[in-house]
Automatic annotation (TrEMBL):
PROSITE patterns: ARID, JMJC, JMJN, ZF_PHD_1, ZF_PHD_2. Residues 424-590 form the JmjC domain. It comes from Oncorhynchus mykiss (Rainbow trout). It is found in: Nucleus. One of its GO terms (molecular function) is DNA binding. Residues 1323-1332 have a biased composition (Polar residues). It catalyses: N(6),N(6),N(6)-trimethyl-L-lysyl(4)-[histone H3] + 3 2-oxoglutarate + 3 O2 = L-lysyl(4)-[histone H3] + 3 formaldehyde + 3 succinate + 3 CO2. The keyword Aminoacyl-tRNA synthetase does not apply. This is [histone H3]-trimethyl-L-lysine(4) demethylase. GO terms for cellular component: chromatin; nucleoplasm. Gene3D superfamilies: ARID DNA-binding domain, Cupin, Zinc/RING finger domain, C3HC4 (zinc finger). It holds the Pfam family JmjN. Its EC number is 1.14.11.67.
C-alpha cells in the first residue's frame, strides 16, 4: 500500500510580492529549499491567456511502459529477459511457474539462493524452507521442495552457464542432474508464458528479422521423412495502448522479409539430411565419439556437434527450436547491454487527437468518467510501476521545443494576438519566456539559446505518463507552470539529500548502474518514494493544479506523473546564489565524464567583462567570489602543466568554437580558459585536469591553448571587485550617516550618488530616499506643531477644557511617524516621541481594559491618573470614568461573592441599590440579575430554615434535603448555617450511636450518658434516643439498687469506692489526699502512679475496651490493696510493740496517745479508744473479729443478695465502673472461697466453734511445724476475707482457727506473767464480749503472735500490760513506776 509523503510548502504571494519573481523566490528560499520543491499560487486574477495554437501543434510522444520505469522492477525484467534468452537459444520457451496461486518471483528466488551460498549449499544444509519463508510463503506446506524443483529446472542451468561450467569437457561429479534425467526445461500447463521485453532492442532501429526454421539434430535417414514442420511464434507483439486494469491484448504485426516457416524448415532439413557416411563425420566435441547419432546435436550457430547427454546439464530430448552450443550461447549472452531509454511512438499527434486518446485511455482504464480521485490514481500508478505481471503502456509528449511550436505564454512578435488588458503578461517576470533572461538571472549572460534552459519546453501529458527522478542541468533552478488540464503530481528531495538518494538507488539496483553510471541523468528511471523514505531519504509531494507554479531548487531531485491530460511549460533559471552550486556541478560532471550544457567559466568571464556601472552590485559580489575560486584553480593547473614540461602555448578563441569542438576527450567538459592539444591527435583536446590522458607523446610535444593569460584575468577580477566594493562602501557610508544623525544635505548627496552609479534598488536606497523626503517635511511640520502647542489641562480628575488648540492623537502620530527615520537631529523629537509612546500605551491599555468584560478598578483609576500628564485629546476618558464606577461596583459584588460567609442579606440589598444608579452595561446587568436572584433565594430559605429546627422536631433526611438546596446559595444565612450545624451534629450523633451499637462491644455508661445528653440538646428527631435514654434509666435504677444493698446509711463512701479494691488501705474519706498518697507510697513501691486513687481507677475502668481489661485493672488494684494493707498491718503492729514512749504514740481516729481500755482492729491492726468508737455499729461481738470504722466500708450483704444484682446488670448490657467492680468482687469472693477450701483440704482446719478461747474439739490439730508455717497463710486469707464487701461464714471460722493456732495464747509457758483464775479472765471480758487490754494473759489477742514488751502495774492490782498498749516505753518501764488507770482511778468502771 502506497503511503503519500508529506506535502511541500505552498506559497501565496501578494500582488506586491508577485511583482518581482526573483526577489520573492529569494525570500522563500530558506523555507522551500529544505523540501527541494515548492508550489506557488499566483494572486487571484493572474490568468495569462493560452497563446499556443491547439490545432497547429503536432508532436511525436515517447512510449513509456510503466513497469520498465521503476528501477527494481526493471532489474527483475532484465533478469527474466536474460533467462528467457538463455532458454530461447537452447530451443525452449520460458514459462514462469505458479506457487500458491502466485507467479513465482524468479529474481528473488535466484538472489536468495545466491545469498545463501548457492544451490549446492542450500541443498546440502536444507535451507529451502528458510528461503520459502523469506519469500513470504506460509510455513508447513512443503513450499521449499517446490522452490527447489523450479530452481533446479529453470535457474540452475542458467547459473551453471554464468559460471562457465557448461564449457567444461567433463560432467562434474556433484552435478545434481544425471544423463538419464528428463529435459531440463519442462513446463506445467498452469505455468505462464513469459514474453521477453527486449528492453535494449527497442531503443534503436530494429533490422528486418529473418527468423529461420528451427533446425533439428541429424537423425537416421529413415526418420527424415517423418519429421513435422513447426512454425515459430512471433514474440514481438505490441500491447494495445488502451487496456483496462492490466488486461493484455496482443496484436501481431506482420514483418516484411520473413520467409515462410515451411520453406525455412525444408531448407534446414536439407542441410541436416545427409547420408549415413556423412553422419559419421560428425564427432561430439565433449566425448570425441560419433556414436549414438540420434542423440548428436548440431549447433545452429557454429555447426559443432554435441551429444545430448554430454552437455552440462544434459538434455533428454532434441530441442524443438534453434539450439546453440555452449560456446555460441556464451558469445550471444555476454554481449554488452544497450543503455535503456524511451522509444518514440509510431505516430504523430495533434494536441486535440492526443487529448482524445488520453481521455479515452483513462476512462477505459478506470471504467469511470475522466475525473477520478487523485489518491486513487496515485496509488494505482505506484502499483503498476512495481509489478511485472501487468504491462501498461502510455505516451508522453515531453521536451517539446517552444521555439518551434510556440509557447503557452504570449510573447512579443508571436502569432498570438494579445488583447490590451493582457499586455502586462508580455513583460511579466513570471512569463517563462522572460524569466531566464531577466537581469537577476545569471543565464542572461549566456548568448546561446539553450532549449529547456533559456527557452521553455512544453509537456503534454496523459494519465500515468511520468517524468523520472532527475536534477536539472548544471543543478539549476527550474519552474513549471501548468496551463490547463488535470493535475500533475510531484515528488521532491532536498538538495542536501541528493547524494543519499543516489546511494540508495545504487544500492537497491546496482545492476542498472553497472551498465549506465550516469543513469540518473538520463531521466529514464523511477523508484517508489516509500522505498526511498524507508532508507532515510526525505521526500515531499504536491499536486500541481492548473494555474499554479512548481519551483525546484538547485540539486533537488524530483519526479512525478500526470493525473490525466494536461499541458505544462517549464524552463530553467539561475540566481546569483546558484553560482557556487553551478561550479560544484561542473566538477561533478567531470567525475562522471558527462558533457556540460554550457561553459561555466565562459559565463563568468563574460559577466566580468561587463563589470562597470551596468552590473548589479550584488551580482558583482557573487561573480567576484566565484571568479576568485576559478582563477586560483586555473593558476594551479597552468603551473602544474608548466612543471610537466609543456613549453608551447598559443591563444585560442574558444568562445567562437561550437561546444562539441572544445570538449575534453576524457571527461567531456567544455573547455574555455585553457586546453591541451597535440599534433598527433588533430581535432582532440583535453582539459588541464587530464593532461596525461591526451596521447602518449612527451610533454614537450603538447601545446597549451588559452583564452586569456593570467595577466589578463586578474584585471578583470579587480574590476569586478571594485564594482562590488563600491556598493559596499556606499552602504557603509549610508549606515554611518544614518547612525550619526548628520545634516540632511549629506543624505541628498548619497541619493544622487546611487542614481548616478546605478546601484540596485535595494531597501536601503528606498529607505534613504524616504528619509530624505521625510526630513525635509518634518523640519517644517515640527516647527508648526511646536509653535501651536499650549498647556490646557486642568488637574481635576482628568477633565479638559474646551480649547481647540489641543493635539489629536492622529496629528501627533503623523508627526512622530515623520520623525522616526530622520537622519538629522531635532531637539523636540524625543519629547514628541515620548508623548506619543505614552499616548499609545494609554490608548492600548484603555482599549484592553474597555474590551475586558470586568476591568480592574485599580487599573482604570491608574489610567485616569495617567491621562493627567497627556496633553492630547483623549476620547476614552468619559467611558473610562463610567467603567470605573461600574468596575468598583462589580469589584464590590465580586468581593462579596468570593466571601460568602460575609455576604448577608443587608449587603445584598445595599449592592443592589448602588447598582441601580450605574450606567447600563452587560456585566452590570448580569451581576444585578445574579444578585437579585441570590437575594430572593436567600430570603426564602432564611424564612424556611428557622421553623425547621424548632418544634416539632424533623427527621435528619428531611433536613438534609433542605440543606442540599441551600448549599448552592453563596451567601451568609445564619438560620441556614444553624440548620447545617444542627444536621451535622445529628449526623455525628447517629454515626456514634450506630458505631456504639455495631461495634461489637458492650457500651460504657459514660459514653452512653454523654450520647443521651448531647442528643437531647439537638433539635432533631433521633430514632435511637428513646432506646438509649431508657437504657440509661435502667442503669441508674440498677445503681440505686446496688447502693441500697451495699452502702450504709449516711455513708461517706460511693458505690464504686465500696465495690472496688482500695487503693489506699486503712484511710477514711476524711483523710487528706496528701497524707493518703504519702502512706500509700510507703506501703508499696510497686503501686502504679496511674492507680493511686479512686479517680484513677474509675478513669481506667471507663477507658477500658472490654471487661477483660477492666478485670485486669481491678486485679492490679487488688494486688496493691493487699500489699498496702499488709504493710499497714505490719506498721501498726510494730508501732504498738516498739513504741518506747506511749505518750508520743498516736492511735485511734482521734490521733491521740493510748489510754485506758483499747480496741484493736483485726484488719488494719491499729488501736482505738473505746470511747471513740462506742455506740457505733462497730461494737465487738462475742467470739467475732472486730473491724474499725475505717475498714468497715459497707453493710457487707450476703452473697445471695449480691448475685441478682450482677444478673440484672448483664441483662441491661451496659458497662459501668460499678458493674465491673461488682463482677470483680464476686469473682474475687469465689476465688477466695476456693482458696479457703483448698487450705482446709491441705490440713489447716477451720474451726466451727463459736468460742474465742481454746476449742474443745478442733477439726484438725496440726503439728508444731505445720502450725508455724500455716499462720502467715491463714492470716493473709483472713485479711482478704475481711476486705471482701460480702458477708461470708468462712471469714469468722478462719478467724477462730487462727486464734487456735497461737500456742502462746493457749499454753503461756514462756509468759512472765502469773497465772490467773478463770474469774479474773472473765472479769477482763466486757459485757459485749469485746477484748480489753487490761488482762492480756487470758486473751488470745493477735498481738501475742509477735514478741512484745510487758509492764507490771506498781499499784494494788499488780496486773501485766503491753507497753505499747498502755503507752509506756521500755526506758520508762525500767526507771519509773507504772500505775494502771484502774489503780489511779478507783471509781473507774472496769470493763
Amino acid at each position: 500500500m502506497f503511503i503519500a509523503p508529506p506535502e511541500c510548502p505552498v506559497f501565496e504571494p501578494s500582488w506586491e510580492e508577485f511583482a518581482d519573481p526573483f526577489a520573492y523566490i529569494n525570500k522563500i528560499r530558506p523555507i522551500a529549499e529544505k523540501t527541494g520543491i515548492c508550489k506557488v499560487r499566483p494572486p487571484k486574477g493572474w490568468q495569462p491567456p493560452f497563446a499556443c495554437d491547439v490545432d497547429s501543434l503536432h508532436f511525436t510522444p515517447r512510449i513509456q511502459r510503466l513497469n520498465e520505469l521503476e528501477a527494481q522492477t526493471r532489474v527483475k525484467l532484465n533478469f527474466l529477459d536474460q533467462i528467457a534468452k538463455f532458454w530461447e537459444l537452447q530451443g525452449c520457451t520460458l514459462k514462469i511457474p505458479h506457487v500458491e496461486r502466485k507467479i513465482l518471483d524468479l529474481y528473488q528466488l535466484n538472489k536468495l539462493v545466491n545469498d545463501e551460498g548457492g544451490f549446492d549449499a542450500v541443498c546440502r544444509e536444507r535451507r529451502w524452507s528458510k528461503i520459502a519463508l523469506k519469500m513470504g510463503f506460509a510455513p508447513g506446506k512443503a513450499i521449499g521442495s517446490h522452490l527447489r524443483s523450479h530452481y533446479e529446472r529453470i535457474l540452475y542451468p542458467y547459473n551453471l552457464f554464468q559460471t562457465g561450467a557448461n564449457l567444461l569437457l567433463y560432467m562434474p561429479i556433484h552435478s545434481p542432474m544425471s544423463p538419464l534425467q528428463k529435459p531440463t526445461l519442462t513446463n506445467d500447463t498452469k505455468d505462464t508464458d513469459y514474453i521477453p521485453h527486449d528492453l535494449p532492442q527497442r531503443q534503436s532501429v530494429q533490422p528486418l528479422e529473418t527468423c529461420s526454421i528451427a533446425r533439428r539434430a541429424k537423425r537416421m535417414r529413415a526418420e527424415v521423412g517423418c519429421m513435422k514442420t513447426v512454425t515459430e511464434e512471433d514474440c514481438e507483439n505490441r500491447p494495445n495502448l488502451r487496456r483496462r486494469m492490466g488486461s493484455y491484448v496482443a496484436k501481431p504485426e506482420p514483418q516484411a522479409g520473413k520467409l515462410c516457416p515451411l520453406a525455412k524448415f525444408t531448407e534446414k532439413c536439407m542441410c541436416r539430411c545427409v547420408c549415413l557416411s556423412q553422419v559419421d563425420q560428425y564427432m561430439c566435441l565433449v566425448c570425441g565419439s560419433g556414436s549414438e547419432e540420434d542423440r548428436l546435436l548440431l549447433c545452429d550457430g557454429c555447426d559443432d556437434s554435441y551429444h545430448t547427454f554430454c552437455l552440462i546439464p544434459p538434455l533428454h530430448d532434441v530441442p524443438k527450436g534453434d539450439w546453440r552450443c555452449p560456446k555460441c550461447l556464451a558469445q550471444e549472452c555476454c554481449k554488452p547491454q544497450v543503455a535503456f531509454g524511451f522509444e518514440q511512438a509510431g505516430r504523430d499527434y495533434s494536441l486535440r487527437t492526443f487529448g482524445d486518446m488520453a481521455d479515452s485511455f483513462k476512462s477505459d482504464y478506470f471504467n469511470m468518467p475522466v475525473h477520478v480521485s487523485l489518491v486513487l490514481v496515485e496509488k494505482e500508478f505506484w502499483r503498476l510501476v512495481s509489478t511485472i505481471e501487468e504491462d501498461v503502456t502510455v505516451e508522453y509528449g515531453a521536451d517539446i521545443a517552444s521555439k518551434e511550436f510556440g509557447s503557452g505564454f504570449p510573447i512579443r512578435g508571436g502569432r498570438f494576438q494579445v488583447s490590451p488588458e493582457d499586455e502586462d503578461y508580455l513583460s511579466s517576470g513570471w512569463n517563462l519566456n522572460n524569466m531566464p533572461v531577466m537581469d537577476s538571472s545569471v543565464l542572461t549572460h549566456i548568448t546561446a539559446d539553450i532549449c529547456g534552459m533559456k527557452l521553455p519546453w512544453l509537456y503534454v501529458g496523459m494519465c500515468f505518463s511520468s517524468f523520472c527522478w532527475h536534477i536539472e542541468d548544471h543543478w539549476s533552478y527550474s519552474i513549471n507552470y501548468l496551463h490547463w488540464g488535470e493535475p500533475k503530481t510531484w515528488y521532491g528531495v532536498p538538495g542536501y539529500a541528493a547524494e543519499k538518494l543516489e546511494w540508495v538507488m545504487r544500492k537497491l539496483a546496482p545492476e542498472l548502474f553497472e551498465s549506465q553510471p550516469d543513469l540518473l541523468h538520463q531521466l529514464v528511471t523511477i523508484m517508489n518514494p516509500n522505498t526511498l523514505m524507508n532508507h532515510g531519504v526525505p521526500i515531499y509531494r504536491t499536486n500541481q493544479c492548473s494555474g499554479e507554479f512548481v519551483i525546484t531548487f538547485p540539486r533537488a531531485y524530483h519526479s512525478g506523473f500526470n493525473q490525466g491530460f494536461n499541458f505544462a511549460e517549464a524552463v530553467n533559471f539561475c540566481t546569483m546564489d546558484w553560482m557556487p552550486m553551478g561550479r560544484m556541478c561542473v566538477d561533478h560532471y567531470r567525475q562522471l565524464n558527462r558533457y556540460c550544457v554550457f561553459s561555466h567559466d565562459e559565463m563568468v568571464c563574460k559577466m566580468a567583462s561587463k563589470a562597470d556601472t551596468t552590473m548589479d552590485v550584488a551580482l558583482a559580489s557573487a561573480v567576484q567570489r566565484d571568479m576568485t575560486v576559478m582563477l586560483q584553480e586555473e593558476d594551479k593547473l597552468r603551473d602544474k602543466v608548466s612543471k610537466m614540461g609543456v613549453q608551447r602555448s598559443q591563444q585560442a578563441e574558444y568562445d567562437l568554437l561550437p561546444d562539441e569542438e572544445r570538449q575534453c576527450s576524457k571527461c567531456r567538459t567544455t573547455c574555455y580558459l585553457s586546453a591541451l592539444t597535440c599534433p598527433c591527435s588533430p581535432g582532440q583536446l583535453v582539459c588541464l585536469h587530464h593532461a596525461h590522458d591526451l596521447c602518449s607523446c612527451t610533454s614537450s610535444e603538447l601545446t597549451l591553448n588559452y583564452r586569456f593569460t593570467m595577466a589578463e584575468l586578474y584585471p578583470m577580477m579587480e574590476a569586478v571587485t571594485l564594482r562590488a566594493e563600491s556598493y559596499t562602501y556606499w552602504v557603509s557610508h549610508v549606515s554611518d550617516i544614518l547612525e550619526a544623525k548628520q545634516d540632511k544635505k549629506k543624505l541628498r548627496s548619497l541619493v544622487v550618488e546611487a542614481e548616478v552609479k546605478r546601484f540596485p534598488q535595494s531597501d536601503l536606497l528606498r529607505q534613504l530616499r524616504t528619509v530624505t523626503l521625510d526630513a525635509e517635511k518634518c523640519a517644517v511640520v515640527a516647527q508648526q506643531l511646536l509653535i501651536g502647542k499650549r498647556q490646557t489641562r486642568y488637574r481635576s480628575g482628568g477633565r479638559k477644557s474646551q480649547s481647540q488648540n489641543l493635539l489629536t492623537v492622529e496629528e501627533l502620530r503623523s508627526f512622530v511617524r515623520q520623525l522616526h527615520n530622520l537622519p538629522c537631529s531635532i531637539r523636540q523629537a524625543p519629547l514628541l516621541k515620548d508623548l506619543l509612546t505614552r499616548v499609545d500605551d494609554f490608548q492600548q491599555s484603555s482599549e484592553q481594559l474597555l474590551s475586558d468584560e470586568a476591568p480592574s478598578p485599580v487599573a482604570l483609576q491608574g489610567l485616569l491618573d495617567l491621562s493627567l500628564g497627556l496633553d492630547v485629546e483623549l476620547p476614552q476618558l468619559a467611558l473610562l470614568r463610567e467603567r470605573l464606577e461600574q468596575a468598583r461596583w462589580l469589584d464590590g459584588v465580586k468581593g462579596a461573592s468570593v466571601r460568602p460567609h460575609s455576604l448577608c442579606l443587608d449587603t445584598m440589598r445595599r449592592l443592589i441599590d448602588q447598582g441601580v444608579g450605574l450606567a447600563p452595561h452587560s456585566s452590570v446587568e448580569r451581576a444585578m440579575a445574579r444578585l437579585q436572584e441570590l437575594l430572593t433565594m436567600s430570603e426564602h430559605w432564611e424564612e424556611r430554615a428557622l421553623p425547621s429546627i424548632s418544634r416539632p422536631r424533623h427527621c435528619v433526611e428531611t433536613l438534609v434535603e433542605a440543606l442540599q438546596e441551600v448549599a448552592s446559595i453563596p451567601a451568609y444565612l445564619p438560620n441556614c448555617l444553624l440548620l447545617k450545624d444542627t444536621v451535622d451534629q445529628a449526623k455525628d450523633w447517629l454515626q456514634e450511636a450506630e458505631t456504639l451499637q455495631l461495634g461489637g462491644r458492650i457500651p460504657v455508661l459514660d459514653t452512653l450518658t454523654d450520647l443521651v445528653s448531647r442528643a437531647k440538646a439537638i433539635p432533631v428527631w433521633l430514632d435511637p434516643l428513646a432506646r438509649l435514654d431508657s437504657l440509661v434509666f435502667d442503669v441508674q435504677a440498677w445503681k440505686e439498687s446496688a447502693a441500697k444493698t451495699f452502702l450504709m446509711k449516711n455513708s461517706a463512701y460511693s458505690l464504686l469506692e465500696v465495690l472496688c479494691p482500695r487503693c489506699e488501705a486503712g484511710t477514711g474519706p476524711q483523710q487528706s489526699k496528701y497524707k493518703r498518697a504519702k502512706d500509700a507510697a510507703q506501703c508499696s513501691e510497686r503501686n502504679s502512679a496511674r492507680l493511686d486513687c479512686l479517680s484513677d481507677v474509675e478513669r481506667a475502668l471507663s477507658e477500658s475496651k472490654d471487661s477483660a481489661s477492666a478485670m485486669a485493672t481491678l486485679a492490679e488494684v487488688r494486688q496493691k490493696e493487699m500489699e498496702s494493707l499488709l504493710a499497714l498491718r505490719a506498721s501498726n503492729e510494730s508501732k504498738l510493740l516498739l513504741a518506747g514512749d506511749c505518750g508520743a504514740l498516736r492511735v485511734c481516729v482521734c490521733h491521740k496517745a493510748p489510754s485506758g481500755a483499747m480496741l484493736q482492729c483485726e484488719l488494719c491492726r491499729d488501736a482505738f479508744h473505746r470511747s471513740c468508737v462506742l455506740g457505733s455499729n462497730q461494737d465487738p461481738l462475742p467470739n467475732q473479729a472486730w473491724v474499725c470504722p475505717r475498714c468497715q466500708l459497707s453493710e457487707k450483704p450476703p452473697l445471695d443478695r449480691v448475685l441478682p444484682l450482677l444478673a440484672s446488670l448483664q441483662r441491661i448490657r451496659v458497662r459501668l465502673p460499678e458493674g465491673d467492680a461488682l463482677r470483680f468482687l464476686i469473682e474475687r469472693t469465689v476465688r477466695w472461697q476456693h482458696r479457703v477450701q483448698q487450705a482446709s483440704a491441705e490440713g489447716v482446719a477451720v474451726t466451727t466453734s463459736h468460742q474465742r478461747w481454746a476449742s474443745s474439739s478442733p477439726t484438725w490439730a496440726p503439728s508444731p511445724t505445720q502450725e508455724t508455717n500455716s499462720i502467715p497463710e491463714l492470716e493473709e486469707l483472713m485479711v482478704e476475707g475481711f476486705l471482701l464487701q460480702v458477708t461470708l461464714p468462712e471469714t469468722q471460722q478462719l478467724y477462730r482457727s487462727l486464734i487456735k493456732l497461737d500456742p502462746r495464747h493457749h499454753h503461756h509457758t514462756d509468759s512472765p506473767f502469773p497465772q490467773h483464775s478463770a474469774e479474773q479472765d472473765q472479769h477482763q471480758q466486757n459485757s459485749q464480749g469485746g477484748t480489753t487490754i487490761q488482762n492480756l494473759t487470758s486473751v488470745s489477742f493477735p498481738l501475742s503472735f509477735y514478741q512484745v514488751n510487758w509492764v507490771q502495774c506498781d499499784g494494788s492490782c499488780q496486773q501485766w500490760f503491753h507497753q505499747v498498749c498502755v503507752g509506756v516505753s521500755a526506758e520508762q518501764a525500767e526507771k519509773e513506776d507504772y500505775i494502771c488507770i484502774s489503780c489511779t482511778q478507783p471509781d473507774h468502771t472496769r470493763e
